[in-house]
Structure formats: structure tokens, C-alpha cells
Amino acid sequence: MDIIRISLLGICGVVLGFFLKGTRTEYVSFITMGIGIIILGLAVDKLDYLFRMIGKIQQSLSVDPEYFLTLIKMIGITYIGQFSAGICKDAGYQATASQIELFCKLSVMVLSIPVLMALLETIQEFLG
């Protein structure tokens, strides 16, 4: 039922922003940021559960903990990047939003290089 609460919160924010867009356009960005921060606050329980489950998976598998840390970093980068880019787009700064998205994509690629290298080494051991 959390999705209904989050959806209603988002819709209320959009409607409020729609009404203020004609009279107080400077408040629309603040409403967008506020709604985003409230939703992030409500998502903390989900993140806590996610981290606990990743910890359990890490304990049950013999995988380097660095890979799980990399996965968590990637999730954080994508969420923060999407949130920031969305705010920039709502404020009318498309170019800044595109630059944020590009930087996030590059950051995820840089983080994934060690994982890719380990995968290639494993494949090479099986083939060699």
C-alpha cells in the first residue's frame, strides 16, 4: 500500500505545482524538491531492507564484498542522478539535466570496470 501513498503524494505535488505555475513559478521547483525529499524519506525503510538482504546474500555466497559495495554505489549514483536531473528538467534546465545524466552514466561505467575485469579473468581461466 506504500505505492498508493507515494503515488497520491506525487499527484498532489503535481497538482499543487500546476496551480502555482501560473502565479508563483519560483515555488514549483521547491515543491518538486520537497516532494522528492519526502518520498526519499519514505523509501528509507525499503533501502534498509535492501541492504539487509544484500548482506545476507553476501554471507551465503563466496563473493568479494567489494562487488556488493560497488552495486550499492551504482544504485546510489543512479537514484541521486535521476532525482537531480528530474529537478533540473522541471526547472527548465534541460542542458544541466543532460550533463548530470551523462556524468552518472560515466560514473557507473567507471565503477563497473573492476567487475568487468574480474569477469573477463574468470572466463579466461575457464578457457585457458
From TrEMBL:
Matching InterPro entries, A to Z?
Answer: Spore_III_AC/AD (IPR025664)
Listed A to Z, the keywords are: Membrane, Transmembrane, Transmembrane helix
Superkingdom classification of source: Bacteria
Transmembrane feature ranges: 6-23, 30-47, 67-88, 100-120
Does the entry feature the keyword Membrane, yes or no?
yes
Note one Pfam family from the annotation.
SpoIIIAC
Keyword Cell membrane (UniProt):
no
Record's protein name: Stage III sporulation protein AC/AD protein family protein
Native organism = Blautia obeum
